[in-house]
Structure formats: structure tokens, C-alpha cells
Specification:
single chain; 188 residues; alpha+beta
């Protein structure tokens, strides 16, 4: 957010991730200075037909002003618009051919209007954000795999210790049976 803020106005910024399996949008980071905005606006929610999902469907940078947002709404491309937005810029987070998230800046002030150059900058930053997210997810996956492996090693070690004890007991019983008469219990 700090890097984006150094490049363009990012007082209202968010990163959203798509969970394709569960069909959920999760806002992994957000800052919004609108007086009407609340934390519930950025809670995980089902995929719907908002601007965030529009970028996911398009798979490319989307730059909108009030009139273009209204045109999308009237065309049925989106189900809702925020009338406080003067400018909205969203870029997809893409891994290979999969679009897995969106990075967005939006303006509630008439004097802050995003441009195509801002879109190029945000798209450049989104590539680095994508890499960072992928590295973090890979590290989390590796940690989970290591935890699972450690658990399996502990379980298998306990099983082997039990098996060793049973074999030692069986060996002692065989030695006893070989050295003592089974009927009288006297040494052979």
C-alpha cells in the first residue's frame, strides 16, 4: 500500500482474492476513507456482480469514471454501484492463466481521477504483489506439509516402538520356552 501510495493516490485501496472452489471473495487488505464505508463492506462474501468480480471476469485492467460505472450497471454487467466513486481502477492478480484476485484504487473526490498511466503503474505493482502472495502461500503450504510430516513421523515412531516392545516380549517368551520345560517350568 505504501508503494502504491507513492505512485498514485491510494487513500482508498484494497486487494481481494478469489476462492474459486468456495466461490468467495476475501479482502486480504483494505483501507477506505469513505465516511459511509464500514468493515462489513470488506468482509468475505460470496462472488456476485460487483466491480471486483467484473475485473475478475474481464481478466484485464478496468478504469472507470462515474458515467462508465453507470453504463456497466445499466448494461447489467454489475448489480450495484457506489455513487460516491468518482474514479475506480482495478487490475487483476494473475498467476499463469488464472486470475485469482484484484487490486483496486478508488477515488471519492472529483479532483482525483485515475488515468491509463495509473493503470499501467498499478498493473506493474500487481505483478509484484502476485509474486509476494504466491511466495507466502507456498511458504504456508510448505509449513503445513512439514507439520503433517512431523506428525506422521511421530505416529510411525510410536508404532515402531510398540512393535519393538512386542517383538522383545515375544523373543523373551521364545527364549524362556527354549530354556525351560513348559510342563514343569524347570530349566532344560
Amino acid at each position: 500500500h505504501n508503494i502504491v501510495g507513492q505512485l498514485l493516490s491510494a487513500s482508498n485501496f484494497y486487494i481481494a482474492k478469489l476462492d474459486n472452489e468456495k466461490q468467495l471473495i476475501t479482502f486480504v487488505y483494505y483501507i477506505d476513507q469513505s465516511s459511509k464505508s464500514t468493515d462489513t463492506d470488506y468482509k468475505t462474501r460470496p462472488v456476485s456482480r460487483y466491480l471486483t468480480e467484473y475485473v475478475l471476469r474481464q481478466g484485464k485492467t478496468v478504469l472507470l469514471d462515474k458515467s462508465s460505472m453507470m453504463a456497466l450497471y445499466e448494461a447489467g454487467e454489475i448489480d450495484n454501484i457506489n455513487h460516491d466513486n468518482y474514479s475506480w481502477l482495478g487490475v487483476p492478480l494473475v498467476s499463469g492463466t488464472d486470475t485469482f484476485g484484484v487490486m483496486v484504487v478508488q477515488s471519492y473526490q472529483a479532483n482525483i481521477i485515475f488515468t491509463e498511466q495509473d493503470g499501467e503503474l498499478l498493473n506493474f505493482v500487481s505483478q509484484h504483489v502476485t509474486s509476494a502472495i504466491q511466495r507466502r502461500e507456498a511458504a504456508q503450504y510448505q509449513r503445513k506439509v512439514n507439520e503433517l510430516l512431523e506428525h506422521q513421523v511421530k505416529v510411525r515412531t510410536a508404532e515402531l516402538e510398540e512393535e519393538i516392545q512386542q517383538r522383545q516380549l515375544a523373543e523373551e517368551q521364545l527364549k524362556h520356552a527354549a530354556s525351560y520345560d513348559t510342563l514343569t517350568g524347570l530349566p532344560n
